[in-house]
Specification:
By secondary structure, the chain is an alpha+beta fold. It has eleven helices and ten strands. A hairpin with a 4-residue loop joins strand 6 and strand 7. The relative contact order is 0.09. This is AraC-like DNA-binding protein. Keywords: DNA-binding, Transcription, Transcription regulation.
Length: 289
């Protein structure tokens, strides 16, 4: 068994520890040993497929698909083992946050809503989204993880950056579970379509393409999605693409044409038009100030 308590440590402070683990060539039947600190919350993002996890404190076993995550509270120091059965790569991103930091952040004494959020976190109600299934990361969650991985500054700037991103991740998680509570027990059409878009928005997809791939009529997709999310499918796809484009545009080493392709636009003219409509300026003008 490989003990990875300090392996891949990216950030450490009094309240937060971030680890990035990537075991590209695991031995057959080898297991990674993950430690959760006493009285802490652990945000675990699984970045490779078919990872099995066994939590020793509650004798629970999970099978994670790629890009699923859990938010878990541990009252005592505990260990968990992760492994794959076919010598597949094991890659995960873990954020550990101590209880007192979360308590001060949420301030449960300030309102009933805040108290309920903390209670749900302690009771581990943010592990399963639908029918004992861990939630999938959203596009924004992916972006935040990439920002945390690529951030290069150290000291106070890094600490402030990390804390800001963790707060944003928690907000996204709470929103995702609040959205779940508004849906029926079985995910509706709009949920299925949104999940498909979140995973494929960077491709050249349209409502008719989604219809063909999901087996749902175009009219039903458009109607249900707009009713649930108060925006059209096309506008949602565009918003996701523009969110990614704006983050990429600050890197002057990436050509605008490359950003357009990365964001799902076949023609750079269409990308420029959409960017200017969204932000009021062309990509080049925003990049050059």
């Amino acid at each position: 068994m490989k003990n990875l308590a300090n392996s891949g440590l990216m950030f450490s402070s009094e309240n937060i520890r971030i680890l990035m683990q990537e075991d590209e060539q695991p031995e057959k039947y080898s297991r990674l040993h993950m430690i959760e600190s006493r009285a802490s919350f652990s945000l675990l993002f699984l970045l490779s497929p078919n990872i099995r996890l066994e939590a020793h404190d509650c004798e629970t076993k999970f099978l994670f698909r790629k890009n699923q995550y859990i938010l878990h509270y541990s009252s005592q120091e505990s260990t968990a083992e992760l492994w794959t059965e076919n010598q597949e790569a094991i890659k995960y991103f873990q954020i550990q946050i101590n209880y007192q930091y979360i308590f001060n952040l949420i301030d449960p004494e300030s309102s009933r809503e805040n108290a309920e959020i903390l209670e749900n976190m302690i009771r581990n109600n943010y592990i399963f989204l639908h029918k004992k299934t861990p939630p999938y990361m959203t596009v924004e969650m992916h972006m935040i993880l990439n920002e945390l991985i690529s951030y290069s500054k150290k000291g106070m700037m890094q600490r402030l950056f990390v804390e800001a991103k963790i707060i944003k991740l928690l907000i996204l998680i709470f929103e995702q579970f609040n959205e779940k509570n508004k849906l029926q027990a079985e995910p509706g059409i709009s949920f299925v379509v949104k999940k498909f878009i979140d995973e494929n928005y960077h491709k050249n997809i349209r409502a008719e393409d989604i219809g063909k791939l999901t087996g749902i009529s175009q009219n039903k997709i458009r109607k249900e999605f707009k009713f649930q999310y108060k925006m059209t499918v096309a506008d949602y796809i565009s918003d996701l693409r523009m969110l990614k484009a704006r983050k990429m545009i600050i890197d002057k080493d990436i050509l605008v044409k490359e950003i357009a392709i990365e964001c799902g636009y076949e023609y750079v003219q269409n990308f420029t038009r959409a960017f200017k409509k969204k932000f009021g300026v062309s990509p080049e003008k925003l990049r050059n100030g």
